[in-house]
Amino acid sequence: MRQNLWDNKGIALNRQIRRSQVVKKSLDRNSTMLLDIGCAEGFTTNFIKNIAETVIGLELNFEYLKIAIKKVTTVHFLNASIEFLPFREKTFDAVTILEVLEHLPTQLQVDGLREASRVLQSTGTLIISVPYKEQRTFTTCIHCNKDTPLYGHLHSLDEDMIGSILPNRLFEPVKKYYLPHLEMISCLNIFRFLPLSAWLKINNILGKFNVMRGYWIVLKYIKI
C-alpha cells in the first residue's frame, strides 16, 4: 500500500497541496454535481469539496475509503471502479480523474474514460492529472522475478497520449497546467506561502526557459 497522502510532510506535502490547488482552480464554481474518480484517501477531494453542491468520491480500495471517510466531511464516498460507474447518463457537470490513468492497463483507460464521458453532461468539465512524461523506475518483483514499475505506474503519459484515449470528438481541451518537479518552486519556505497565482507565474516563467521539467500535468476538457 502506498504512503497515505495525509501523512506527507515538507516537500512531499507541499507538492500535493499545489497540485490540489491547481485542480480546484481548474473547476467551475457553479457546478451542481461533481464526481472524483479514484479519490484514494480523499486528500484532493478535500480541496474541491465546496466547488459543487454535491461531491461524490469514488474509490476501489477499501483501505483508502476508510481514511477518506474519516478525513473529509460533506462528501459522499462510494466503492466502485472506473469502468463500471454506478450512475445514470449525464448525472454530473464535473468529473475529475487525478493520478489514476497511469495505473491502468490501456483497455481499462479507454473503458474508464468512456464511462466518465457517459456520466458527464454536455458542456461539462473533465479534469485529468497524471505524472508528466515520467521516467519510470522498475524493480524486480519478489514473487514473479519480473521487472515491475515502481508505484504501479504502467504508463508514461503526456497530453497527446491522454487525447488519444479520450472518446473520439467528444472533448475539447481548454487549459493545461505543467507543474514542476523543482524543489525551489514547489517546496522551499520562500515560495511555500505564495498565493497560487504568483506561484503559477513563477512556474510558467521557468517553464518557458526550460529551467525545469513538469512533474505533473493538469488537463481541463469540456465535453462537446
TrEMBL record:
Its EC number is 2.1.1.-. GO terms for molecular function: S-adenosylmethionine-dependent methyltransferase activity. GO terms for biological process: methylation. Keywords: Methyltransferase, Transferase. Transmembrane segments: none annotated. The keyword Ribonucleoprotein does not apply. Residues 35-128 form the Methyltransferase type domain. It holds the Pfam family Methyltransf_11. It comes from Candidatus Nitrosocosmicus oleophilus. This is Putative S-adenosylmethionine-dependent methyltransferase.
